[in-house]
Amino acid sequence: MTPSRFRPYLLASPAIVLLLGFFLAPMLQLGRVSLYDGGGRSGFGIGGGGFYKPNTWTFQAYRTLAGETYFREVWTFTVLLGLGVACITLLIAYPLSLFIHRLPPRAKALALTAVVLPKLANVLVLIYGLELLLSNSGPVNGLLVGLGAVSEPVAFFHNLPGVLIGETYLILPYAVLALVASLDRIDPALVPAARGLGAGPLRVFWRVTLPLSAPGIALAAMLSLIWALGAFTGPVLLGSPQELTLAVEVQRQTFENLNWPRGAATAVLMLVTLAACLVLYQVPARFLRRRGGAP
Amino acid sequence: MRRRLSVSRLTGNIFGLGTLLLLLWPLAYAVWISFTPSELLEPPRGELSLRWYRRFFNSPQWTAGVWNSLEVAGLAVAGSLIGGTGLAVAVTRHHFRGRRLLSGAVMLPLFVPSVVLGMGLLPWVRFLGFWGSLWSLGAGHALWSLPVVFLVVRSALEELDPALEEAARGLGASPFLTFRRVTLPLIMPAVLSGAAMGFVLSLNEFMIALFLATPDTETLPKVIWPNLRYTLTPLVAAASCVTMLLTLAGLALTSSLLRMERFVDRLLSRGK
Fold first, then answer.
1. Residue B36 has pLDDT above 70, yes or no
2. Which CATH superfamily is domain B49-271 in?
3. Closest to B202 measured CA to CA, from B116, B79, B83, B24
4. CATH no. for residue A141?
5. Residue B193 with chain A: CB contacts under 8 Å
6. Domain limits at A267?
7. For residues B82 and B224, which has the higher predicted lDDT (pLDDT)?
8. Using CB atoms, which residue from A22, A173, A264 is nearest to B119?
C-alpha cells in the first residue's frame, strides 16, 4: 500500500495532470506564441511554412497592436459591449428572479427548469432560434408590422441590437441562477416582519430585499461581465463587421489571417483586460457586500 | 393602497411569465421549423415532414459529427470524473500541502474565456503532436467539467456522516474497500449528476472545438457552425434538434441510473 503521506497526492494526481498539462501549459504556450515573430497572410502561413517564425523572441505583435487604431477600436467596443450586456442582463434578470423567487415550490422548480433549459441546448441552436425569430419574415416582425407599429420589418440582426439581444439571451440564465440563489437565502420571516412594523411593500423591497440580495447582484454582475467580455457567437452570427470583439479578433487572426503571434497577443491582452475588470470591480462589489452585510 | 399593490404584482407576473416564454421560444421555434417540408426557413404549413432529418442521417459528415461528439463527451466525462472525484476525496479527507491552492486552481478554467483557452491549446496540442485526435478535444472539454464535478462531489462528501467511514475502517476494511463499499455508493448521486453536467457541457461546447477540431474530428457544433454562417437551411434546425435529443438522452440515462441504483438498494435492504 502507498504510505498515507502520499495518498492525497495520488488521489489528486489525475486532476493535477489535467490542470498542468491542459491548462497551465497551454496558457504558458499562449504567452510564448505571442512573443514569436512573423506570421500573417503574406508571409509564413501560406504554403505550410508555419504560423510564426520559430526560435524568435520579440514584442513585435504587442507593438503592432499598441500602435493600431483598429485594435483600440475593437478593444473599446468589447469593453463597452461587456459593460452594456452586463447592465441589460441585470436589469432583466433581477425582476425575473424576484418573480421566480416568490413562486410556490413546484412552479418555482418549473420556472428554474425553463431558465436552465436553453443552457442545455447548443449556443448555436439558440442563436439560430433567435435568427429565425427575429428575421424579416419571422414572428416578431410579423407582429410588429401586423400591429402597425412599424411600416416595414425592423432589421434585428447584422447590427448592434442583434448582438445585444443575442449576448443577453446567452448570459441571462447564469445571472438568474445566481440571483435566485441569493434571494432564497434571505430569511423568509424578514419581509412579513417589516410589513408588520408598518413598512409599505416598496419600502420593504428597498430597505430589506434589495440590500440583502446585494451579494447575489455582485456575483451575477461579475459572471455576466466575464461572459460578455468573451462574446464570440453573438457578434459573429448576429452582428456586422462593425461589431468586432476581441474574441472574434483572436479567431480571425488565427484562422483567417494565419498570424498566430498576433492572435495570441490579442488573447493575452484579453486576459489582462478581464483581470483588470475583476480588480476594478472589487470596489463596487465590496460596497454592495457591505450593504448586504449591514443589518 | 391594496389596489396599487395588486397592479404591481400583476405587472411583475406578466413580466416574469413573458420573459420565461421568450427564453424558451427560440428553442421551441427551432424544433418546430425542423419539421418543415419546405426548402426555405419557414414553419410547416399543414403537414409535417421528416425530410431534413433524413438528409441529416444520410450525410456522412453529420453522422460522423454525432459520433465524434459522443466520443469526445465520453472522454471528457471520464477524465473529469476521475480527476474531480479524486481531488474532492483528497481535499475533504486529507490534510496536505497545496490543498487550498488546488481547490482554488481547479476553478480557474471557468474564469478564462474559452477563446483564450482555445488559442493556447492549439499551439500546445500541435507541439505535443496530438493535434487532430479526439483526445485533445476530450482533454479540453474535461477542463470545464472538472470544476463542476469537483464542486458537486465535494459538497456531497462534506455532508457525509464521517462516522460511517470510521465504522467501516474500525471493522477492518481497507481505505480502498471503505471507499468502494461505503463512500462511493453514498456519493453516487453527486457523481452521476456531475457526469451528466460534464456530458451536457462537452456535447454543446463549441469554442474549443472550433480551435482544435480538424476535418476528421469535427464535433456536431463544429459541423453546424459553417452551415449557420453561410447557408441557412432547415437542416441546421434538424441538427439542432438532434443535439438536444442527445443531451436529453444523456440526462435521462443518468437519472435512470440513479433510480435503478435506488431500486437495487431497496431490493438489497429487503433481502436482509
1. yes
2. MetI-like (1.10.3720.10)
3. B79
4. 1.10.3720.10
5. none
6. 34-184+215-293
7. B82
8. A264
